[in-house]
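Late entry, adenosine-5'-triphosphate complex.
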Amino acid sequence: MADKSKRPADMLDGAPTTVEEPGRPPTSFLEVRDLRIHFPTDDGLVKSVDGLSFKLERGRTLGIVGESGSGKSVTSLGVLGLHNRRNAKVSGEIWLDGNELVGASPDQVRRMRGRNMAMIFQDPLSAMHPFYTVGAQIVEAYRIHNDVSKKVARKHAVDMLGRVGIPKPDRRVDDYPHQFSGGMRQRAMIAMALSCDPELLIADEPTTALDVTVQAQILDLIRDLQREFNSAIIMITHDLGVVAELSDDILVMYGGRNIEYGSVDDVFHRPEHPYTWGLLGSMPRLDRERSERLLPIKGTPPSLINLPQGCAFNPRCAYSELTDGKSTVERPELRETAPGHTVACHMAVERRRRIWADEIAPKL
Ligand SMILES: Nc1ncnc2c1ncn2[C@@H]1O[C@H](COP(=O)(O)OP(=O)(O)OP(=O)(O)O)[C@@H](O)[C@H]1O
Ligand code: SF4
Ligand SMILES: [Mg+2]
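Prediction complete; structure with ligand written out below:
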């Protein structure tokens, strides 16, 4: 992790961070600009993602964290172009390797998806067809983009299964998904996801269902494969231990928006948003017993149809009184508080830092 020399806060807290001008050519491998994904429903418009921007380079890992319902999976499916345009309203820009995906035709998106991107879903069974062998599914995925014989593709499938640690891969390649244990299915899905050497890998809760030992093996595997393929990775998880281990940067989502963004070091050691403090106190971590981390954030996640006015976190925030009334009327913009570290909160920077150091950090 690069050590960043900090500029004085007053030089950084002035202007909101700007979203790139629409249509401007991207400078990063993946650039998401002002992404909005809304679902019209009988109850109203569900704004699952509402103005999200981030960048990611190859070889780097971005962790996305946030409570259930904050829009993490909707974001990842959006980046992969997997939302049905009939029931999802998607706007903004997603630039992947110089190609813009939001305005592209479904055919173009499909081609990009197969060539450049892969996803590890939370539930491996949902990503695998029960009636085809694991090997046949890897073969099919591989042959869509590689003009090779079935025999060559099968050899590739066996190789990939071996590399994800499936024992006797030449025999297990002919098993059906239900013949694999949970951990092996997860590995097989990772093999499937990586069999096309994706430049962008999105892993949505890849290890949630697995025991700690298997979790650690899978994380090693993702790291190794990233090194080999120089993939950009988006890692979505409830587990801050996983995020800390694998990510370079962290994006904290609340109510479909980015409320804090920074390096792992910033977000773990100098977090400035009261919601991030809550997450750090309530989320399980690999390095602690689950029972030691039971400081839930009070209240419930916001309605995405009617987000609270002002700061969406204000009904749950213990510090909303400290902002001269702004918290309930004005939506806080993301502002740079140190180089590369942005926070959306009306509280004065020095005050946030004091509260973190004096009241929060000692309790964690
Ligand atoms: N097709 C849809 N129609 C209406 N609402 C939807 C649709 N898909 C997702 N949502 C809503 O969008 C919100 C964000 O969902 P999302 O799955 O992204 O949450 P998440 O952050 O991944 O949560 P979790 O941690 O539980 O996986 C939820 O309130 C969900 O109900
Ligand atoms: S803007 Fe106000 S309500 Fe929102 S996190 Fe900051 S202090 Fe709390
Ligand atoms: Mg999800």
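Residues 273-274, 311, 313-314, 317, 319-320, 323, 327, 332, 345-347 surround iron/sulfur cluster (ligand 2) (CB under 6 Å). Will revisit in the morning.
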